[in-house]
Amino acid sequence: MPTRQGGNSPKNFKASAQQLGALDNLTAIIAQLSYACAEFIHSINSYVANAIFGMSNNEIMIDMPLEVKMIRLASFVMVIMGLCTATSGVASTSAQGYVLAITQIRQGPFIFSQNGTRTAQPSCSTLNRWAVDTSTDAGKAMVAIILSAYSMRKKVVIQGTGDCSTWFDSEAVDYLYIID
User: Torsion angle of alpha carbons 148, 152, 157, 163, nearest 10°?
Assistant: First the structure.
């Protein structure tokens, strides 16, 4: 009796069932995020209607003079443009340079400085240092790269996140790489 080859073995069906279970979990998470985003957008719409247009959700602008409608619409557009272009901080980039000083805080971040010229440093980064979160695998990999560059006297280029979320006075590292 002939047997099927390839993807129809029971082992493959089991793997597919596990993948479908993971996909179901991911779908549920995406649905929850979509619902949360919809609720957030609804609350923003209500706020804009009340704060800018001076209306509740059930009112419309039919009885308003055209000039008032235009002024309110222009105000709304300006607010939206401001929200769309606002950033929480300016991320800095350093030109290639050598790692100079290394500090490891006990049960905390890995902090270092580098002598490359830095652009657009956020105001929270008062000591011209960089911080890496060592509690993550990505952070541990970054520390390995930094220590390698330091020990081999290689230059590194660093891109920051624009905030000091890892350590209060040092910009968090988004990514970095060694220059040969």
Answer: 40
Q: What is the pLDDT of residues 15-71, one digit of tens each?
A: 455 555 555 666 666 666 666 656 666 666 566 556 555 555 555 555 667 666 666
Output the pTM of the full model: 0.52
Q: Which fold has domain 93-179?
A: OB fold (Dihydrolipoamide Acetyltransferase, E2P) (2.40.50)
Over residues 94-119, the pLDDT tens digits come to 889 999 999 999 889 999 999 999 99
